[in-house]
Amino acid sequence: MPHATPHADVATAELDSALRGGPFHVALRAAIAARGLPLQRVQHHLSRHGVKVGVTSLSYWQQGARRPQRPESLRAVRALEEILQLPEESLIRLLAESDERAAGRCSPGRSYRSLVEASGVRERLLAEIGAPRDGGLHTLGHHERVRIGARRELAERESHHIVRAHRDGVDRHVAVHHGDPGSAPERMTVHALENCRTGRVRWHRDTGVLAAELLFDTRLRAGDTFLFRYSVEDGTAGVSREYVHGADSPGGQYALQVRFDPGALPVRCRRFTQHSPAAPRGGHQELAVSGRYRSVHLVEPRLRSGYVGIAWDWE
Fold first, then answer.
1. How many domains does the chain have?
2. Which has the least CB within 10 A, 24, 123, 184, 188?
3. Which structural domain range is residue 84 located in?
4. Residues 230 and 272 grouped into a single domain
5. For each of the chain's 315 residues, which pLDDT tens digit applies?
6. Residue 91, domain member (yes or no)
7. Is residue 134 situated within a structural domain?
8. Separation in Å, CA 97 to CA 7, 94, 124, 205, 244
């Protein structure tokens, strides 16, 4: 039986360490070295994946002299994960984390780890409630109003849904709320405001995720539309710096409004989008706080899968 050489063992150990802690260019260089591929061969494998990247660019990437940023370059990074036999999104994650650090947003924003952990917890809570992954509803419109309190905390979130059933017998919706870091979901309160009542509620303390069953007063038939409204009273965490909405699948119109307490106004606000927890944030646009209502908002005419949100900076 063949044995790994000491050199291969060292290369593998360096790769494992780099994939855990980064940065991106070190992990890429370690992965290429561990597989023993010259850059010309890496380029050839990329071309077979339908991605064109020059040897010079690959060299710059692994030296840290340049970073993949264009869509074609990000496609190449995902292809490299397969070519170099790396875990899915391992390089993309490191790229996103270093982008956030460079922009000074790593601490205030939701990290890759927190979003992924919250997603896993959400699936477990839905299973506890007995909710199928496909709830049988397609979102035609969703308007969220977030209120930031006097302590700069996420005080409350109100959601107004317009949905259409795509199968018979749908009589409920499971709402998921992801509190800010340090939140206490067991102290949050769910209020059924219109055309629904609160059923089972489950939460996960470490991630601040709460899932609440909202029961309708009717069973919908396929094609029926329905409107309902609920809110989550939060206020259990510290300073809030952003609100992120995630969607597993495309939907209808989405609007997000963030309103600030008159005694706690941010110095600047911006909207952003993010394709996945591992992807860099894009679509940045500065938002001006309205003087009279102390709010900012965004509107997506047709929501795509991924994340969209508003972030703000305090003095």
1. 2
2. 123
3. 6-103
4. yes
5. 444 454 555 567 788 888 887 788 889 999 999 999 999 999 999 999 998 899 999 998 988 878 787 777 888 988 999 999 998 888 887 877 665 444 444 334 566 567 767 778 888 998 999 888 788 999 999 999 999 999 999 999 999 999 999 999 999 999 999 999 899 999 999 999 999 999 999 999 988 999 999 999 999 999 999 999 999 999 999 999 999 999 888 889 999 999 999 999 999 999 999 887 777 788 899 999 998 899 999 999 999 888 999 999 998
6. yes
7. yes
8. 29, 5, 26, 25, 17
